[in-house]
Amino acid sequence: MIPIKPVSIHANATSPSKPSPDLSTIPQDVAGKFLAPGKLNLTVLPPLALYVHFPWCVRKCPYCDFNSHEVKGSFDEDAYLRALRADLESALPMIWGRKIYSIFIGGGTPSLMSAAGLDRLMSDLRTLLPIDGAAEITMEANPGTFEMEKFRSYRQSGINRLSIGIQSFHSEHLAALGRIHNGDEARRAIEIAQTHFDNFNLDLMFALPGQSLAQVKTDVETALSFAPPHLSLYHLTLEPNTYFAKFPPAIPDDDLSAEMQDLIHEKMAGEGYRNYEVSAYARQGHESRHNQNYWNFGDYLGIGAGAHSKLSFPHRIVRQARYKQPRAFMDAALAGNAVQESNEIAAHDLPFEFMLNALRLNQGFPVNLFQERTGLLINSIEKELSEAERKGLLTRDHQTIAPTERGRMFLNDLQQIFLRDEEEK
After folding, report:
1. Ordered structural domains, the chain, with CATH
2. 304 and 53 in contact (C-beta within 8 Å)?
3. How far apart are CA 128 and CA 84, in angstroms?
4. What pLDDT shows up at residue 9?
5. How confident is the model at residue 26, as a pLDDT?
6. CA nearest neighbour of 369 among 2, 21, 13
7. Phi, psi values for residue 381, rounded to 5°
8. Taking 50 as the threshold, does the pLDDT of residue 8 lie above it?
9. Chain center to CA of 420
10. Is 211 exposed, middle or buried (0-12, 13-18, 19+ CB in 10 A)?
11. Spatial contact of 168 and 143, defined as CB atoms under 8 Å apart
């Protein structure tokens, strides 16, 4: 899930599995633009992940602010797959010689793809990229699209982890959220996933319109009855530019929402799940490697309509965004450049960019990771660290920096401390 909202793909790794590529092999246009001298000095490049965006869904949910578009009858799968391959081919010089440690196919609803289409996509990725043999390869799936044979084929094509958008097991809540499945279809989807996948995630939402504390308890207990390796539990938020933002439903108040969150923490901990990130719970060894790479400020190449990238070079870190509309993206990709925006992250913005991600991890991050991923010395943010510590939002020693319990409760306030205003830049 890349919403930026998205390591050896073992996210605790702090260096790639092989040395940085020989810069003499990189094409001259890339060498001149991205490898020129700059303000940063990254001695090692972060692990690299790949995100593939599939932009279509059956119905646009009223809370969704992702780049997704309702299918109007059908979509041109062949044209989109050709565009994805062209997009990746154009991007290869940016990641010359770097191995891919995780792949996430998100959307939209990627499980609308045919089995043959997914197999073609995976074949293209393996042909063009050096993919680590132990790579985690995740695909998002909607319960309304589950067919036994199709998901068996997905597994055979190389998908080794599913992320299933359950949201709730109560059909009335699913209807209020605009989902195309009901509670029975949600259960059936998990049963199919269990048949073919050892590793899968269930997405659930809480603080839904008209939802009671007892209904949250039922949702969590139902999910746990399937013993999923990983659960993501998200508080419904009314995002700008969504139907819910324009026509807000009646949702639980802050006190009831807090009770729901406390209940979730208690239930998950009681079943042996570790709350390793704000909304993520996992059994030991099943943390999302792809998402951990985001939170550890690793690199990712995003291909597909509206996909975002964050790529590091020895002297700069660059963010890119592809064209959002599917047809505009396809036309641009086939013409040789699907990138609509490309910007170097200014050095004064890097502390906030890093902390926006790393402080989501409940156990924090190694002190030396800040310098390794940003090229900046840790003492460059001493003032901000001291302020956060003084407010009881953060704890640190010579090895680790981590949010306190109060810092996790007021995460936005903690992150904002590292956002520098204009006169500081």
Report:
1. 23-294 (3.30.750.200), 363-425 (no CATH)
2. yes
3. 12
4. 27
5. 56
6. 13
7. -120, 25
8. no
9. 25
10. buried
11. no
Please work out, in degrees rounded to the nearest 5, the angle formed at the alpha carbon of residue 62 by the alpha carbons of 201 and 301.
50
Torsion, CA 186, CA 191, CA 193, CA 195, rounded to 10 = -170
Q: Within a 13 Å sphere around the CA of 70, how many CA atoms are in the beta-carbon half?
A: 10
Q: How confident is the model at residue 12 (pLDDT cuts 50, 70, 90)?
A: very low
**219-264: pLDDT as tens digits:** 999 999 999 999 999 999 999 999 999 999 999 999 999 999 999 9
| Amino acid identity at 252 | P
Closest CA to 356 of 103, 45, 94, 3: 3
Taking phi over 0 as left and psi of -120 to 50 as alpha, with beta for the rest, 113 belongs to beta
Q: Residue 1's pLDDT band (boundaries 50, 70, 90)?
A: very low
Cα angle value 62/324/346 (rounded, 5°): 110
Q: Which of 307, 341, 343 is nearest to 325 (CA)?
A: 307
- What is the spatial distance between Cα 311 and Cα 297, in angstroms, rounded to a whole number? 10
SS3 assignment for 138-192: EEEECHHHCCHHHHHHHHHHCCCEEEEEEECCCHHHHHHCCCCCCHHHHHHHHHH
d(CA 338, CA 328): 9
pLDDT in tens, 83-126: 999 999 999 999 988 999 999 999 999 999 999 999 999 999 99
Is the overall model pTM greater than 0.85, yes or no?
A: yes
Residue 161 φ then ψ, to 5°: -155, 135
Evaluate whether 236 touches 173 at the Cβ level (below 8 Å): no
Q: What is the pLDDT of residue 4?
A: 32
**Main-chain phi, psi angles of 406, to 5 degrees:** -65, -40
Angle between helices 77-91 and 326-334 (to 10 degrees): 50
* Strands ordered across the beta sheet of 339-344: 274-277, 280-282, 230-235, 200-206, 161-167, 131-141, 100-107, 48-54, 299-303, 308-313, 316-322, 339-344
Q: Which of 23-27, 36-40, 41-45 has the lowest mean pLDDT?
A: 23-27
Query: Which residues face 309 on adjacent strands?
Result: 320
Contact residues for 295 (Cβ-Cβ < 8 A; gap 6+): 11, 277, 357, 358, 360, 361
Residue 395 is predicted with a pLDDT of: 98
Residue with tokens 């269930």: 202
Answer yes or no: are the C-beta atoms of 315 and 41 closer than 8 Å.
Answer: yes
Reading the block at residue 158, the tokens are 């190389």
Cβ–Cβ < 8 Å for 144, 180: yes
